[in-house]
């Protein structure tokens, strides 16, 4: 099976422990690459999301 290349909104909610509206706010801010499919579903680039997450400053 091919390596997963995209995350769903639900997967980002689970990874980050945040609400659905918060995920959509991140998408609106273009924090990482994403596409919108027919039917309004979003797919977020796994690579760009993982890179973004890895570069977040640590909590103080």
From TrEMBL:
Origin species: Claveliimonas monacensis
NCBIfam families: excise
Entries under InterPro entries matching the protein: DNA-bd_dom_put_sf, HTH_17, SinI_DNA-bd
Protein name as it appears in the record: Helix-turn-helix domain-containing protein
Superkingdom of this protein's organism: Bacteria
A Pfam match: HTH_17
Domain Helix-turn-helix per the UniProt entry, residue ranges: 7-56
